[in-house]
Amino acid sequence: LYVLFRVLLYLLVFKGLEQIWSNVRSLRTNSSPHDPFANAFSTKWIDDEVKLLLREKTTEIGKLKEVEQFRKDFLGNVAHELRTPVFGIQGYLHTLIDGAADDEKIRLRFIKKAAKNADSLTTIIEDLITISRIETNEIKVEKSSFDLIELIEEVFESLDYIAGKKSIELKRKGLNNIDVSADYQKIKQVFTNLLTNSIKYGKDEGQTTVSTYDLKDQVLLEVADNGIGIDKSDLPRIFERFYRVDKNRSRNEGASSGLGLSIVKHYLEAHEQEIKVRSSKGKGTIFSFTLPKSTQKEKQLTLKVG
User: Fold this and answer.
1) In Å, what is the CA distance from 222 to each residue of 75, 90, 96, 192?
2) pLDDT at res. 157
3) What whole-number distance in Å separates Cα of residue 39 and Cα of residue 34?
4) H or E element, residue 277
5) Nearest CA-CA partner of 37 in 27, 45, 49, 29
6) pLDDT for the residue 6
7) Burial class of residue 27, CB neighbours in 10 A (0-12, 13-18, 19+)
8) 3-state secondary structure of 248
9) Which of 181, 184, 212, 260 would give a disulfide with 174, using CB separation of 3.0 to 4.6 Å?
């Protein structure tokens, strides 16, 4: 019975499989290179798919590592930026509590220093909120037609005091009046951040110049200074959050969050514009971007609303 069972198994199963495999080998041998069924019996496509999958997973793992590193750097930078003003406020207040408040001159000086650190802390928190809103699309661009030169002059006036402390001259050259279509408050913040950054890293008795150039449908703007400049290795990273070219110097320049240039980049991207930077170490830096001109229809609409 056992022998009979083996013979039947061979005739019914193994013999049939052997015939099928023989036919497969025959198809692979006789099929032309252009035969669409030729690759059906090849394992090369499996190797290719596996290699492709490995490359994709390797790239994905690399990106996840970058995101994780960015998260760690971001948390570390936030903690560091917040710690500086908080420790300052804490130190001055505890000194006053421990008896320094009895001296009127010391009391007033320490209260002013604590207030200055509180202003720095407020700046950091407000900029963090702004970045968060930008990245969650909570901030919308509300375009209107306005005179760009008037906006620049307004920013000059608001920064005249801090520029004067370093004897830095704020200059403007180019167009005398030009209407653009953009979000007034956000573009004002762009200029404020760029000029503040320029003053901070500018040389004493230097100058910062805002130039405007008339293109066909756009206006080209440049914010240039003759300050300390930026090293080539730092240029790709200056728009990163909390990245500082000169950490020690920037800490002594008053309230700053390290988010100014990042906000500039986000605001201009929201306007579908790109900011570019050119710099030479020790010679200065130029930031440039474009804004669309207002159409006659936009100008009339703005006048009606006004």
Assistant:
1) 33, 41, 47, 13
2) 95
3) 9
4) strand 276-280
5) 27
6) 72
7) middle
8) helix
9) 212
